[in-house]
Design brief:
Elements: H1 14-25, E1 50-54, E2 57-60, H2 61-70, E3 78-81, E4 94-97, H3 99-108, H4 129-141, H5 145-149, H6 156-164, H7 169-174
Antiparallel strand pairs: 1-2, 3-4
């Protein structure tokens, strides 16, 4: 069953609505047009700004900012951030979209915990770009996997996997190294 969301736009109309918007914008740190405008009041558990728009009614701050800027509140759509900053209320960083649009953005920007995290994008990677460059230099000098690994925080098995192209493929290609595939 779809979530029934109370409309915010009617609460922003008239004199009372102008007062609410004044109270809302007072909680936003406005910066230049290109910068994020952080919400300075309460946040939910995910870091999104929360605004008490009516007596017992709280809404997401970015949603209020987008409604105020566009004068529109499309049914079933969410305020999506182009800046990936949940506190941001800059209308130029916000757009209307579906949950599927939001999930696609999340995957494309590498924020999905199930996304492909290989090479340096892997939070458990021990190698830095400098260490990988040193490994590739060792390959070019003709050093063995054991000789290269002796000076690294990794074992010879990892060096071999890099040598044969099983890991850090994109990164070694950027360094001009083409792996020698063996079984």
């Amino acid at each position: 069953m779809a979530e029934v969301r109370k409309r915010v736009l009617p609460l922003l109309e008239g004199d009372c609505g102008r007062d609410r918007l004044d109270r809302f914008w007072a909680k936003v740190e406005k910066r230049s047009a290109d910068d994020c405008w952080p919400w300075t009041a309460s946040l939910d558990t995910y870091g999104y700004g929360r605004f008490k728009i009516a007596s017992y009614e709280q809404v997401t701050a970015s949603r209020v900012a987008l409604i105020a800027a566009t004068g529109d509140e499309p049914d079933g759509l969410h305020a999506l951030h182009s800046c990936d900053n949940p506190r941001c209320c800059n209308p130029s960083h916000l757009r209307w979209g579906t949950m599927q649009d939001n999930m696609i953005d999340k995957i494309e920007r590498g924020r999905d915990r199930r996304a492909r995290r290989t090479g340096f994008r892997n939070p458990g990677a021990k190698l830095t770009p400098e260490l990988l460059a040193a490994i590739v230099a060792g390959f070019i000098q003709g050093l063995s996997d054991n000789e290269i690994a002796a000076a690294m925080p990794i074992g010879p098995q990892t060096v071999r996997r890099i040598r044969i192209g099983r890991t850090f493929c994109e990164e070694t290609a950027a360094l001009g190294y083409s792996p020698t595939r063996t079984t």
